[in-house]
Automatic annotation (TrEMBL):
<feature type="domain" description="Glycosyltransferase subfamily 4-like N-terminal">
    <location>
        <begin position="21"/>
        <end position="212"/>
    </location>
</feature>
<protein>
    <submittedName>
        <fullName>GDP-mannose-dependent alpha-(1-6)-phosphatidylinositol monomannoside mannosyltransferase</fullName>
        <ecNumber>2.4.1.57</ecNumber>
    </submittedName>
</protein>
<dbReference type="Pfam" id="PF13579">
    <property type="entry name" value="Glyco_trans_4_4"/>
</dbReference>
<dbReference type="GO" id="GO:0016757">
    <property type="term" value="F:glycosyltransferase activity"/>
</dbReference>
<dbReference type="InterPro" id="IPR050194">
    <property type="entry name" value="Glycosyltransferase_grp1"/>
</dbReference>
<keyword id="KW-0808">Transferase</keyword>
<dbReference type="Pfam" id="PF00534">
    <property type="entry name" value="Glycos_transf_1"/>
</dbReference>
<keyword id="KW-0328">Glycosyltransferase</keyword>
<dbReference type="InterPro" id="IPR001296">
    <property type="entry name" value="Glyco_trans_1"/>
</dbReference>
<dbReference type="InterPro" id="IPR028098">
    <property type="entry name" value="Glyco_trans_4-like_N"/>
</dbReference>
<feature type="domain" description="Glycosyl transferase family 1">
    <location>
        <begin position="228"/>
        <end position="378"/>
    </location>
</feature>
Length: 427
């Protein structure tokens, strides 16, 4: 560790290999990026939630690339998770969390806290406190603003909705624990303006900062290579195969398009999607793929389609595509309009006709696809690459520490804030 490195805790429910989606991978990438820059990073995460939901217990080391990982585990994972889900407070791991977080870190960064401690965990720990909203959990008991498990939510009808999602109602939400405990957090980091707007619309009143997601420029030993020539061009979908991801709206478009649809992922909706694509040789299900294989799939695709029917926060698929200079075709919902406006790296659709038009544009005009893909790559380098975002990360810590009078933390954090805009540092 360098002399000025900070002590940083990552606190989250899911962390690989105890994770389902992108939030655990995001935390892992951030922890590794910070550790690589000389900071003393520790991860504190709950294994009970994953074990209760999956019924499995993966083998996992006590460290990740040299980063200590505190994997909290009880003998009763279902009871432990249900207690947090119902109370909104740390339960069986209360004492361990207090011991781990009190007077040990300069920065405590909360992520998905839904099953490790709920809003009550924000009281734990000392130093600068950050919280990244990876979903809409702070304003939605189902996390995704997908009302009655069938449509986008536009107003609160939470009791009926959670029952239709087959989840237990959360008693603590009636006690306003979110707003009561939010005062313990110095910065709420929202990964898109859309996410911040949705939180405000559904009653979250704490100040929020829109803070970019990121990826390393290279991952898993990959190197930049030219796109391979494809005798049969393909459009790529990457993600969980769930009804909310909207892939069912895409499959039918490939009945007569001069390209194939390659689908990388798995999920609960997979059997329905396979039935929709049955008999169509242009629709290929690839299953789940590791990142080193996905990178090549991204690179060689004519476009990546992201048709989510619900509000995403900031899908990592977009950055994975842009990193490989591949444009996206995205539903005009959630963060996608702001992503396209900032990057120029794709096209939006609203209707089935819009979707076909956008896909046809890239399939029949490889030069247009390449040009928009390069725009996406340039935006990635400028806005979402690791070096850029980590510099901004320390800007946020510096400002929060100064607001709290934590001058030593502010001074050390400022040494790592490399964003071109010095206004925040100089006051």
């Amino acid at each position: 560790m360098t002399e000025t490195g900070l002590r940083i805790a990552m606190v989250t429910t899911f962390y690989p290999p105890f994770n389902f989606g992108g939030d655990g991978v995001y935390v892992q990438r951030l922890a590794r990026a910070l550790a690589a820059r000389g900071h003393q990073v520790e991860v504190i995460h709950d294994t009970d939630g994953y074990r209760a939901l999956s019924g499995t217990t993966p083998e996992a080391p006590a460290s990740d690339n040299g980063i200590p990982v505190h994997r909290l585990a009880s003998n009763q994972p279902v009871l432990s998770s249900l207690a947090v889900q119902q109370l909104g407070q740390p339960a069986l791991h209360r004492a361990a969390l207090r011991d781990l977080l009190t007077d040990r870190f300069d920065v405590v960064h909360f992520h998905n806290i839904s099953l490790i401690g709920g809003p009550g965990i924000w009281k734990y720990g000392t130093g600068v406190k950050l919280h990244t909203a990876h979903e809409h959990w702070m304003v939605c008991p189902t996390h995704i603003l997908w009302r009655d498990n069938r449509e986008i939510c536009d107003k609160r009808r939470c009791l009926r909705c959670v029952l239709r999602h087959r989840r237990p109602p959360q008693l603590w939400r009636a006690a306003n624990l979110i707003s009561r405990n939010a005062r313990h957090v110095d910065r709420f980091l929202m990964l898109s303006q859309s996410s911040a707007d949705n939180h405000r619309r559904f009653g979250f009143t704490a100040p929020m900062t829109v803070f970019p997601s990121f990826l390393p420029k290279f991952e898993g030993g990959a190197s930049e290579t030219a796109k391979a020539d494809q005798s049969q061009p393909y459009v790529l979908f990457v993600g969980r195969l769930e009804i909310i991801k909207g892939l069912q709206d895409v499959i039918s478009a490939f009945s007569d398009l001069p390209a194939e649809l390659w689908i990388a992922g798995s999920g609960n909706y997979e059997s329905t999607l396979r039935a929709l694509g049955e008999g169509n040789p242009k629709v290929r299900f690839l299953g789940r793929k590791p990142m080193h294989e996905l990178q090549q799939l991204y690179r060689d695709a004519v476009a990546v389609v992201t048709p989510s029917r619900c509000y995403e926060v900031f899908p990592m698929v977009v950055l994975e595509a842009f990193r490989e200079a591949t444009p996206i075709v995205a539903r005009a919902l959630g963060p996608y309009p702001e992503i396209i406006e900032a990057s120029g790296g794709g096209q939006l659709f609203t209707t089935a006709e819009d979707l076909r038009r956008a896909l046809t544009h890239y399939i029949k005009n490889p030069a247009a696809a390449a040009a928009d893909g390069q725009r996406g790559r340039k935006a990635f380098d400028r806005l979402w690459s690791e070096d850029v975002v980590i510099g901004q990360y320390f800007h946020e810590i510096t400002a929060a520490a100064r607001n709290r009078g934590l001058d030593d933390i502010a001074r050390r954090a400022a040494k790592f804030a490399t964003d071109a805009n010095d206004e925040l540092l100089n006051g």
